[in-house]
Write a structure and sequence with these properties.
Helix content is about 50%, strand content about 15%. It has about 270 residues and is an alpha/beta fold. It is globular, with a radius of gyration of 20 Å. The C terminus is likely disordered. InterPro entries: DUF4032, ParB/Sulfiredoxin_sf, ParB_N. Pfam families: DUF4032, ParB_N. This is DUF4032 domain-containing protein.
Length: about 270
């Protein structure tokens, strides 16, 4: 049987207009259903073989040959197919060894019926081209600018820690895995999607970043993302007005307008 070429998630996402997503947790998935990669297709040959196996590949291969446990990969699910965001080495080895199942953290994508404005589409394309991140759906153009600014700051912190130059797409992927994905999991667990109907997970994440900026300005120091997340949940979602309750979105926008007069509804 002829080996199949590796599919690119970006191509599939654009074709199917994939922008709605749902976090599915960690599951054992069938290796044969892993058909593509997110942003790494150029590094893979047909059949999901690495073009240039490196030291890490051979080290992981020895571990997997012995049957030792490796961390779950991270995949985007589209229908019955999976696209690897993190774990291309592990998948290449699993396919070569004939492994039937592999543990994966699954994020499922669905087509969106919402039509983008020209400005929003332009911002999304600019964001994807700069960072290499696909499928982050936002409803306001300014939110893509917020993400880019935050990723640039994150890259600078990585450079200080690693003492070397860090490319923006490297920082973006690291940020996505270590900051954005855990935050989105928390947003889902707290039920914020139900509160902010019509807004995406990315929008809600941006609301938390705005809250972080506001609180940091007020306190005179950077309160950090974890504190901002907790404060956002407690202060914004924990207050109900006994008479004539405002919607939570109205309360949040009112808070921001005190310190962010440049915010405009798109």
């Amino acid at each position: 049987m002829r080996a199949q070429p590796v599919k690119g998630f970006g191509v599939v996402s654009k074709k199917l207009n994939l922008s709605n997503r749902a976090y599915r947790g960690i599951h054992a998935i069938q290796v044969k259903n892993i058909v593509g990669s997110v942003g790494r297709v150029q590094d893979l040959l047909s059949g999901f073989k690495l073009k240039n196996p490196d030291v890490r590949y051979y080290r992981l291969r020895k571990i997997m040959e012995k049957g030792d446990v490796v961390p779950p990969i991270i995949v985007y699910k589209v229908g019955n197919e999976y696209y690897v965001l993190d774990g291309n080495h592990r998948v290449a080895i699993a396919k070569e060894l004939g492994v039937e199942f592999i543990d994966a953290e699954v994020i499922e994508f669905f087509p969106s019926e919402r039509k983008e404005s020209r400005t929003l589409r332009k911002k999304r394309i600019e964001f994807e081209n700069l960072t290499g991140l696909k499928g982050i759906d936002l409803t306001e153009p300014r939110h893509y600018d917020t993400f880019i600014n935050y990723i640039h700051d994150y890259a600078q912190r990585m450079e200080l820690f690693l003492k070397r130059k860090v490319a923006i797409n490297e920082a973006a992927l690291n940020w996505f895995l270590s900051v954005y994905t855990p935050a989105v999991q928390c947003i889902v667990e707290k039920g914020l999607e139900d509160v902010y109907q019509g807004k995406t997970l990315g929008d809600i994440f941006c609301f938390i970043l705005d809250y972080k900026w506001y609180k940091s300005q007020k306190e005179g120091y950077d309160i950090g993302f974890d504190n901002a997340m907790q404060g956002f949940i407690e202060e914004i979602l924990g207050k109900d007005e006994p008479e004539e309750k405002k919607s939570l979105i109205e309360k949040f926008e009112g808070l921001l307008e005190e310190v962010l007069p440049w915010i405009k509804k798109e």
